[in-house]
């Protein structure tokens, strides 16, 4: 039962080459959700994606009932958990869930398991010079956040002008491992390339 938002999300991901999903149903069997992953794969989270944390309340009838601190619980698919080789979930287990900018639940894993690479959209508020290992980025939410820069990404970060919109690829440890700036088309192409590169690393 795909919604208008779900169709828009799917189209957007295909356009930028980030349609990594396998159509795993997270909410209801047969529901259409892009952005999910096969066992052993890892999605690159887009700038509008966010992570929420929840606690398993019940597991029955093929569904995992999760309390995420809102009035109504979230229902995830037991089949999706099995596809990712997660252990049988029990009441009280903690989950981390990926939610899209359109409030779709895209993927999930146990809270103590490795997460996903993610893309941060923002701009440098000061140049990275000398032996400086940290970049301070103003996010699209108006926050100034410091991030460590991996040695391999250092030259790319150095080349980004202060105040210019840019994309930063962060690994699971929130370290910048790649960066780029340019017009919208160039940024979308880079997103697609980052997705392909990260999948290639995973499957070596």
* Sheet of most strands: 6 strands, mixed
Number of strands: 11
Low-confidence stretches: 1-42, 200-204
Between the first and last Cα atoms, what is the distance in angstroms? 36 Å
Domains (count): 2
Shape: elongated
The percent range for helix content is 10-25%
> What's the assembly state of these chains?
single chain
Mean pLDDT: 74
Annotated CATH topology of the largest domain:
OB fold (Dihydrolipoamide Acetyltransferase, E2P)
CATH architecture of the largest domain: Beta Barrel
**How would you spell out the order of helices and strands?**
HEEEEHEEEEEHEEH
The class by helix and strand makeup works out as: alpha+beta
Please count the helical segments: 4
Rg, rounded, reads 18 Å
Q: Name the CATH superfamily assignment of the largest domain.
A: RNA polymerase II/Efflux pump adaptor protein, barrel-sandwich hybrid domain
- What is the CATH first-level class name of the largest domain? Mainly Beta
* Strand residues, percent: 25-35%
């Amino acid at each position: 039962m795909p919604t208008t938002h779900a169709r828009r999300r799917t189209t957007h991901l295909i356009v930028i080459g980030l349609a990594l999903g396998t159509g795993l149903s997270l909410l209801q069997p047969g529901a259409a959700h892009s952005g999910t992953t096969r066992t052993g794969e890892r999605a690159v989270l887009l700038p509008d994606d966010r992570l929420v944390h929840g606690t398993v309340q019940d597991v029955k009838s093929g569904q995992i009932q999760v309390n995420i601190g809102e009035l109504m619980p979230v229902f995830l698919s037991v089949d999706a958990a099995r596809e990712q080789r997660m252990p049988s979930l029990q009441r009280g287990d903690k989950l981390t869930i990926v939610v899209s900018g359109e409030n779709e639940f895209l993927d999930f894993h146990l809270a103590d398991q490795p997460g996903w690479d993610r893309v941060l959209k923002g701009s440098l508020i000061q140049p990275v010079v000398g032996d400086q290992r940290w970049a301070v980025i103003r996010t699209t939410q108006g926050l100034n956040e410091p991030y460590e820069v991996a040695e391999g990404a250092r030259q790319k970060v150095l080349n980004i002008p202060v105040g210019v919109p840019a994309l930063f690829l962060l690994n699971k440890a929130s370290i910048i491992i790649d960066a780029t700036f340019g017009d919208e088309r160039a940024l979308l192409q880079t997103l697609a390339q980052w997705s392909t590169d990260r999948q290639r690393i995973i499957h070596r």
